[in-house]
Amino acid sequence: MDHLEDTDNPHHDHSLNDHARQHPSSSTSALTISHAPITQGPPPACEIPGKFHNSHHFVVNYPVFNDVTYNPETFMEKLEKRTIPGAEYDSSERDPPPRCHPGTRLQIVEQAQELFDDFRDGKRLLWIVGPAGVGKSAVVQTLAENASTPSSKVMLGASLFFSVNGRDDASKAIPTLVYQIAVKHHPYRQFIHNEIANDPKLPTKSIQTQFRKFFIEPFVDHDIYHEPKPLLVLIDGLDECVDKEKQCELISLISYFSVAYPDVPLVWVISCRPEPHITTTFSRPSIAPSFTKQEIIVDSDQARVDVERYLRDELGKIRAKYSALSFGIRWPMEHDFLKLSAASDGLFVFASIATRFIDDPNHGNPAVRLKQLLDLIDDIPTLPPRQSHTQPMAKLDVLYARILSQVPEDLLPETRKLLLLLLMLMTRRQFDYLGLPWVCNWLGVTPDVVYGALHHLHSVLDIPSPEVACDSSRHLRAFHKSFLDYLGDFTRSGMFAEFHREGTKLDIECMERIFIEVSEKHTHHPLNAAACISVFWSYGSSQCVDDQKCLIQEAQEKTYNRAMERFCLHFQRKEAVQFRYWKLFDMTSYLGHHEDERFEDVREMITDDERRYELLQHSVLSKIPIVTLDASRISGSFSSAVLCKYECLRAEYPQFRGELVGASHVAWYLFDDTGDYFPRKWLDSPNHLVTAYTDIRGLGWVLYEFPDLTDKRGRWSFTFPYLFLPAASV
To answer: What is the mean pLDDT of the segment spanning 263-269?
Structure first.
């Protein structure tokens, strides 16, 4: 289960009406058999006999099997590894989750309840749709919490809250739902256990295959659910899942299930933004009959009433929190409150950010903050009627701009750099790098610089305090995705004209600082490049000296590995990377822990025709006569792959393309009777120029290209590792 691979073609048109179980495909993994004494009698209850249990007196020649033994006690643990962490409604990673404010969104919740009550006679899929910031996640959270109470008319089966904050892997959507249902329902858990024991690759197969095996077969073919309450499955934020095709596929599968099997007691809720590909999918004739649509309109009368209730309650909490507001005139005055409520115009995210702005603990004077906000509202121009539908988001943009304008001019460069890094990492979905200790080490700044640069952004960013910032689950994040949308759109924020290009530039600046520091300090740590890197914030603190050293080392290695990773990525993508960094890259490759892996990366660059020309132009590669090479030094002291390629009339022949590892294989391939083109050319043309690369260890690559001796239309190329003399000048 720990090394599962998807062997299904996700684009293949499988028929959902074919419910016959598929036999597990044969594996290509080598068989490993543990020898143990053979005992008589049945196996213990906690064990499931393997294929070779008590077998004897047989011979298997060249076997290729995959023997998997499942222990029921560890089955759920293995399945859990294929789920999206923190995606369930009561996960600590979402604490505190968005909830419907008491007394709000009652109509939507009631409509959902009607769907649950009439699931046998009506439609069994509810589609909650609305723009950003209207409170869709809060509605789904409330439905999940209500379904978890004994008085509910449905039983919560599973909840999946997609998010750009790392909970966005479509391939794990079905296993996430399956795991939660299996926790609550024993017959279902037993069924899933048997299916995965029969085919361990099921949790990694296509979504269509998983849906058939994990929903249609148990609930339709085997009819395993007999509880008095229907089972509720909730999916929130479907549009935040990374793969648009899989978003549409999930909708199609669920809608098909709802229409094709009306007697199965499963009800579904999907919430998302009205993205074009999603609305198009829901509008298909085959899907339209399957669902009830509940649209949350931003500026509807009900939305305005709900937001007004929320604002009144939140401002009441602020008034109770600050005793100074209890003196004199009641705060806020009613006309001020109504102005703020009108500006919110039914958009919950505006009201939420506005109250955070007013209650900013770093300012400490809510009355002044409210006045600033009201003055800002007065300055917002009224849009023409034809553009009125964009008015709430336009006001939100003005609010975001006002919050960013609070950053002092001298702090703005660092603030801008941090926001660029946040936006870049969120776009790349590299959430592991959003911890503030790593941010400090990557940018090369101390914690006080980071906290100073973010000091005025608590209204829009969740900024972990220094006490909890080293917790791996506490990352810098935006309270709402709309703020990231705002930052990434130059026409709205004016922040980053081309944030992808600026992000690449920031990567290079950080790499250069790290590489130069390593090259200057490597004499002090000749065998460990990471130890040369300055740590601005270690991943925790400890009174134990050895433990503290480990924390510092962890920070150094993560920073070093990131620099190496980004260099290779930018170079392979042919992005603008200074060639002067190459020698620094070479130096750190030698001093680091992954030099063999990096050495293989270099080969890939050399065999790229366009890249090779650039490397020659900048003297990273050189041309040398083949007579200067010694055949005995080919793969002489290390093991790396030799790449052989034969091309003819621009067509590659796969039978003449391959990789060989190790000196003995190299010698056999290059010098046997069938492959003697190489040595003959070597001896006949001693002045033939080959392309060479060497690093500071004296290890290198040689690219040897020459025409076929019998067919001039053909061309051979060999790329092989070579041991240069350490003193050689190449």
So the answer is: 92
Distance of alpha carbon 531 from alpha carbon 140, whole angstroms: 48
What lies within 8 Å, CB to CB, of 152 at 6+ separation is 146, 229
pLDDT at 147 over 80: yes
Q: What is the DSSP code (8-state) at residue 677?
A: H
CA separation for the pair 627, 681 (Å, rounded): 11
Residue 723 in tokens: 């041991």
Name 458's Cβ contacts closer than 8 Å, sequence gap at least 6.
Answer: 356, 360, 361, 362
Average pLDDT over residues 390-403: 79
CA distance 494 to 189: 52
pLDDT, position 25: 35
Give the integer Cα–Cα distance in Å for 118 and 354.
Answer: 40
Question: Has residue 195 got a pLDDT over 90?
Answer: yes
What are phi and psi for residue 290, nearest 5 degrees? -90, -15
Measured CA to CA, the distance from residue 147 to residue 155 in angstroms comes to: 6
Residue 563 has a CB neighbour count (10 Å cut-off) of 27
Report which of residues 585 and 29 the model is more confident about.
585
pTM to 2 decimal places: 0.61
CA 634/CA 722 separation, integer angstroms? 5
* The two three-digit tokens of residue 46, written as one number: 């906690």
State residue 93's pLDDT score.
78
Count other Cβ atoms within 10 Å, centred on residue 593: 13
Output the CA–CA distances (angstroms, integers) from residue 277 to 167, 171, 247, 349, 690, in the order listed. Answer: 20, 19, 9, 24, 52
Which tokens go with 447?
A: 């914690």
Closest of 22, 448, 39 to residue 198, by C-alpha:
22
Residue 643: count of CB within 10 angstroms of its CB: 19
Instruction: Determine contact, residues 202/8, Cβ cutoff 8 Å.
Output: no
Structure tokens at 310: 């929320």
> 148 or 7: whose pLDDT is higher?
148
Domain extents for the chain? Answer: 1-296, 301-405, 412-501, 618-723
**Coil, strand or helix: which one is 375?**
helix
Residue 292 has pLDDT above 50, yes or no: yes
The burial of 497, by beta-carbon neighbours within 10 Å (0-12 exposed, 13-18 middle, 19 or more buried), is given as exposed
Query: Domain 1-296's class?
Result: alpha beta
Residue whose tokens read 């240069």: 724
User: At a CB cut-off of 8 Å and minimum separation 6, what does 16 contact?
Assistant: 208, 211, 212, 216, 253, 256, 260
